[in-house]
Amino acid sequence: MSHLSSLDVELAQELGDFKEDDLDVAFTPKDCRTLQPSLPEEGVELDAHLRDCVQTYVRDWLIVTRKSQGGWEPCGFSRKTGSRKDFHKTLQRQTFESEASESAEPSAETAPCSLRVLCGGSGKGPLTACDFTLRSLQPEPRLEGLLQQVSVQDLEQRNEEARRSGRPTQLFALCPPLDEEDAVEIRPVPEHPKEHLGHRILVKLLALKFEIEIEPLFVSLALYDVRERKKISENFHCDLNSDQLKGFLRTHTPSVAASSQARSAVFSVTYPSSDIYLVVKVEKVLQQGEIGDCAEPYLVIRESDGGKNKDKIEKLKLQAESFCQRLGKYRMPFAWAPLSLNSFFNISTLDREGPDAEAAVGESSCGERRTLSQSRRLSERALSLEENGFMSSFKTTPLTITSFFKQEGDRLSDEDLFKFLADYRRSSSLQRRVKSIPGLLRLEVSPAPDTLTGCLTPEMLPVVPFSENRTRLHKEILEFPIREVYVPHTVYRNLLYVYPQRLNFANKLASARNITVKIQFMCSEDPSQAMPVIFGKSNGPEFLQDVYTAITYHNKAPDFYEEVKLKLPARLTTSHHLLFTFYHVSCQQKQGGSVESLLGYSWLPILMNERLQTGSHCLPIALEKLPPNYSMHSAEKVPLQNPPIKWAEGHKGVFSVEVQAVSSVHTQDNHLEKFFTLCHALESQVTFPLRVLDQKVSEAALEHELKLSIICLNSSRLEPLVLFLHLVLDKLFQLSVQSMVIAGQTANFSQFAFESVVAIVNSLHHSKDLSRDQHGRNCLLASYVHYVFRLPEPHRDLPKSGSLAGGGPSPSLDPRYHTYGRTSAAAVSSKLLQARVVSSSNPDLAGAHSAANEDTKGLVSGKIADRNCNRVSYYCSSNSEAPGSTASPRPASRKHFHEELALQMVVSTGMVRENVFKYAWFFFELLVKSMAQYVHHLDTRDHFRRARFSDRFKDDITTIVNVVTSEIAALLVKPQKETEQAEKINISLAFFLYDLLSLMDRGFVFNLIKHYCHQLSTKLTTLPTLISMRLEFLRVLCSHEHYLNLNLFFVDPDTGPPSPCPSISSQNSSSGSSLPEHKVASMFDLTPEYRQQHFLTGLLFTELAAALDTDGEEVSRVQRKAVNAIYSLLSSHDLDPRCARPEVKVKVAALYLPLVGIILDALPQFYDFTDTRGGKGRANGLDEDQEAGSSAPQSVVLAVAGPPFNLKTSGTIFSVPYKQCSMLSADTTRSLMLCFLWILKTAEQSLVRRWVADLPSMQLTRILDLLYLCVSCFEYKGKQSSDKVSTQVLQKSRDAKARLEEALLRGEGARGEMMRRCRTPGNDRFPGLSENLRWRKEQTHWRQANEKPDKTKAELDQEALVSGNLATEASLIILDMQENIIQASSALDWKDSLLGGVLRVLVNSLSCDQSTTYLAHCFATLRALITKFGDLLFEEEVEQCADLCQRMLHHCSSGLHTTRRQACATLYLLMRFSFGAISNFARVKMQVTMSLASLVGKAPDFNEEYLRKSLRTILAYAEEDAAMQATLFPSQVEELLCNLNSILYDTVKMREFQEDPEMLMDLMYRIAKSYQTSPDLRLTWLQNMAEKHTKRKCYTEAAMCLVHAAALVAEYLSMLEDHSYLPVGSVSFQNISSNVLEESAVSDDTLSPDEDGVCSGRYFTESGLVGLLEQAAELFSTGGLYETVNEVYKLVIPILEAHRDFRKLTSTHSKLQKAFDSILSKGHKRMFGTYFRVGFYGSKFGDLADQEFVYKEPAITKLPEISHRLEGFYGQCFGAEFVEVIKDSTPVDRSKLDPNKAYIQITFVEPYFDEYEMKDRVTYFEKNFNLRRFVYTTPFTLEGRPRGDLQEQYQRNTVLTTGRAFPYIKTRIGVIQKEEFVLTPIEVAIEDMKKKTLQLAVAVNQEPPDAKMLQMVLQGSVGATVNQGPLEVAQVFLAEIPADPKLYRHHNKLRLCFKEFIMRCGEAVEKNKRLITAEQREYQQELKKNYHKLKESLRPMLERKIPELYKPLFRVESQKRDSSHRASFRKCDTQLSQGS
Hints:
Number of strands: 37
Strand content: 5-15%
Distance between the termini: 90 Å
Largest sheet: 12 strands, mixed
Number of helices: 70
């Protein structure tokens, strides 16, 4: 290490060198809710169990932390939202073109359309007239210093300085936090153990008032669950009486405690439901009479009645007062009222029957949910409880009860109450059956706040915060949950509830009528020994000695509803018992008589067999005084006494009572009771035989019984086991390290204790009711290890029969194994010895331990002395002295817990072993915590890291790691893969080694890691699984706080070489300038030396490279994991304050340089962000490339121009052909690119340049390709979409943040449910933490999916600010790298298309939405490039120049003046240099003109006003440029600018028609036509038209535009070259479309293709021609014209064959095959266009007036659709009231039209063909392609009506001919000719019959047959009720031979039609017979009958022939010709309908 520079050592220390005091073992005071901890009463000698319990509840937590850990978080401040937010505050808002244009004032295009412009310009020929000159405009400010002469070096340096200033330091702070699905390195700190509290509601009683106020009334409240039929809270007693009424009872209330005056109560509900009722019971002082009699005054007297009742009320008051004085201590039932809490617990998402709800509590979902919100309040989220709790839906609600039900004396029990409540809920019948007493109780219900001042616990302890001077306190009411709550006890609670239920004195003497029971808790039989442990009720003392039940007047068998709450004494003896005394109370005042007369006694001993006696009892009653020692026995089993006891009912049970305990010291479980009793027998002095439950245990049997009870522990019920979990585990761990001598024998419980722990761990993990965190750790166990567990200490007082074993066992055995069962230890040790490498190190030194004990002793006692509460320290005192009462060396048998635990893990077998490794996390965390405590107690000065632990222990650890690794592999290769289980074990192993790095020798741990990796790879065959496992494992290790030191520099001199290989010190990469050349290159590669030096990073990179290189299922998940691991690491460095200094960051970046090599190798797999359709990853090869784009010419550019997108030309660019690998997803690619950019940004720039300088040009090209992709990837997506931008990223990150906080803030929530959901497949690690939703009823799934409503404007602005800065910073890093490439490469490289590569990236970045900041720097770089490489630029890079011009022009039209200024300057410089280079800048002129034409056509947001300003500014530059004035340059510039201005003029017009697509296309068509002599520009406009068509989904028209463009190219190619394989101009394209001939060059002299700058575009080449045709084919295919695809490829294939391009030929033929397949498969299902004739009438239409067009609309467009569209559009133009649509198709009479209106006539037309044409047009396609003639029919009668009877119905057929054939480059074509034919009525009938016959023929011959269709047609033909059906037609036209001989032929023709028709009907009926089902037989009969009937009716008419027709008559020749002409017309019509 000595040769490290001083800087390195300093940096290493700064990065958190491993300090020796890194571990912090701290005793943290336990959170205590109350001012004083809950403790047993003072001055009582406690038994051992109670002392242990209390000690567990009050002792401090022992928490082990690592000091540096706080400074390092695995994802830096993606976890620390605060610092991220602070960083965001420093960001500058970036200005983007897209947003600037929105805020600018709306431009002209929003104005209503006017059609005059087109009309005005229509007569001017080419539309290029300039309305005004540019000079009339004012030029904008010019860029300073543009025209000065500056050297290139100075320019570059100036640019660089400008670029580097004011940049954000942290790149990752700008990225949305990563989707945390893979963040396995987060180990949530468990929730600390705390008292369980449900959802808390605060109930305040405000006032109680009845109609009359005559006596004190007493209220009690409790919650009841109707469905569960259970009382779910204790009672809350409240006194709402006035002081006057309270005075009535003064004699009976000697003192009043403040706690008894509470009027508000906090109820807790763990399982909320809509079945919960708050029941209010009202009692009054006992008085004479039934309840009904006593309630009578309340029902009849109204205080409002005034004076007449005043005397009555006074009298009643006096009467009440006398009763109060005499009977004031007795109560009677009076009234009750239910209050449904349905609205407060109305949780629509929660149905408790559902399985989810079972888990909702898990480890007390509610308590945790509340503390989750507390901790969040501390965090940034500041969520309130309401947002997070179930009660978000209710705030403070005032409630009023206006009527009470009178109590029924014989129905007072809880059973009766539940019946009442059930009735009450169902109906109002209860109100009718039970008398109601009018009254008013006002109360307030609200969610209880987290902190409530002046609150008391159920034990009456004040809760923090507590103010003494508060008059009224709140009381917390204890909940009795309906189901188990699995939360361990954490406070001392010891309460007993007694419920007297029923007494039956029915057969007793008459004196027992008004019966009350006095209840006392006695500590002996002396009547004066009643203990004051009964909690008082309202307005009285806090504790009472006795309590009386309420009395039901004159009832011998009363029910009771009393609840008596007692505070149990800590120490119970057999003398403690409950005494029940029964009295008759006389209500009438008797002279001298006592109020009470004794009826009898009963009692219940509290302990039975040393165990608390609870449950229901039916006790007998003794009628006389009880005998001595009665309390020793239970009342039911008293032995015979002398004299005998006199019993009521002959010792039968007549008094029912129930006793329930709520205690955290009495286990109420036999197994636990026995275990604790036996443990304490071992630890303290006891007398044998020992009583355990109902058996006696002798000393000899103690060991056996204890082992038995340890084994049986797991059989106890889960609830008590969980409640006492902490104590049980403490005891078991105590037993595992403590050897006992019992009856002279050494007893050993280690193995049993360990196995019992394993069993408990297993059952806790298996319980569905317990929650787990995302790593599958049971929350209760995690919390125990983290807070509660501490090293077990040996006890001082040992059994009298012996002490701790002094010496070791027999010397022949390995001294470690004396704990392992006396029989098997030898065998086990020998087995282990074989498997162990014998260690040469010294064994542990025995002398060191006394010091450790002293340390511990001092430490523990010191901590405890700090506590202010002496009583607490009393419970801890035993612990403080535990480390050993003497300082003598410990006996050899003293075992270390960590060694014992490791040993037990190693030697376990069978199921125990399986479970140990299944839940290894628990044992690992125990090991780590115990090791940490052990290390803490060592004297670290004498112990080097290496010597801290014994070699045997290290061997055990090695064995454990190996076994766990094998276990992981075994789980993964099982036939039914248990991947999830394996993942969890894998992660727990990773955390174990992560922890060991801080405790053990790191070289040792690195070896374990190395073994792990090796072992996994040998056992696993499936690569993705293997990589996934190792990745998660490494990700955890790399999150270590000393990760950088573990990799960068190893500066701990004690540990020696830490990596498993001989270590070399880390290479000092920051001094890159001094390195030899080959070193620089290798620094960017993953070399063996690198892996050796940087062990963990090397492993991680290896996994990443392997993941990227893998193929197979699930590979994308693995790749995502790998990339996310690296991403989170880099992110944490970037955001780590320790790495903030630049010199440190440079060091860190140097560590990651090999990542650059890996990323470049993976380039072909990257998601292609440049793909216009998005979403499609790229495969290899060129052919895909042409498919990639839609029809945007940009993608043609990629396909055609020069070397295509380099990523795809596998063999030519890269040294090795790419292996076909799986593509990465967009998110993964993005993350990987961010890592790449971070390294480029952070690494030392001089080093990067030297690396670039050494790279071969192929590698440089690859880097440029990557930068090209990066540009598109980080493009700014705009504010409105900033929620869409990263729908994936942000949506995920929001979910992830919630999940993350859930984990980090240890919010358990309904974790049990969550963890179960997390185990469903496809949900890798985190479930959706939807438990937060469960209490939020307004949030349903759709709300979550669409988070947009939740985002405020401020949030959206903030997001836009950050994403804008990210886009800018990413672009600037890319620009920096390009500058590095430009500066580092030699001039030679520039010849190798490197300039093209750089330009491509720059052009791509200019085509994205960029900030003004970036654009300024980008244009500066461009200007430097032009200055440096101007000549190369114009010679070599023609293609790039064209794109560059277009981008610059685009920015010249920017709404931001800064951008325009930069773009103008750059464009001017480009022109100037091109002129200088060639002294004629025709080429640039051409490019700029074409670019503008293209821009105008494509960009919808294009602003010509700004562009004009820019053109004027460029003119100003030309005029001011002194150096160029002597040349022709200024005049040429002016000429060019005027030309551009005229193109802009056209644009203005196009703006007008933005809304009218047909008009717009007409205009573009005219503009294109005006460029007939300028092929480049015509081509551009044709492409613009294609672009517009594609946007409108008119794919066929778009394809036609490209076919025309291709024909244009072919024309000019044929002039230049004479190759047989090229098409001979546009003639060759006739088969595709007859319209293409337009493109033939009129004559050679119109243009010479050799002229410079003309036809020099990229398309005027063979590859350009192919590109255009291929794209046309693609569009034809999309449009469904598959036959045309074939015609297009007929032109392409000869060219490809001539070039021997077999790859493309393959793809071409496959596309042809696809096209032919589509023809076959789709057949008649194909849809082609629908055609309409549209006529425009009225002068408003200007040029369009009186014109007719045929419009082509998409297939199945209905007439109303086009009508609505055109009416709507022209309504906007002229005003809706001026536009009218003519509904019919009759000829328009213009004279009848309103001149002020615009009329549109729309008619559906069909293609029309002559008979001869039909021979050639066979297929459906042929009948829909190349159409010029259309027909529509108009029915009419001679009277002028459209419809009439058959004999008067005429029809007009109109045939239209268009100027061009459809499909064309437009969707509407003008009509140039119109013909009309009129059909007579009989001809109309012939047409109709032909149609019907044809329909029948089609239906009969259809394959497969369609029964429904056939029946429909048949029904219309032979149905009996068809109006104007065939029969009627025959009767009209065939009944008689016509008089006019001209009609003979028509008559005959119709007769023959009918003959055919009737024949077809017959066939159809027969066919139907074969198709029908059984139930249609009747229908078939009916059809057949109708058919025969029709046939019979027609027969006479069909058999009659006209004899004249069969004579040879010559004079009918002319007529024949005429009719045949018409016939042909009609024939074609039928054929047409057949085809349709």
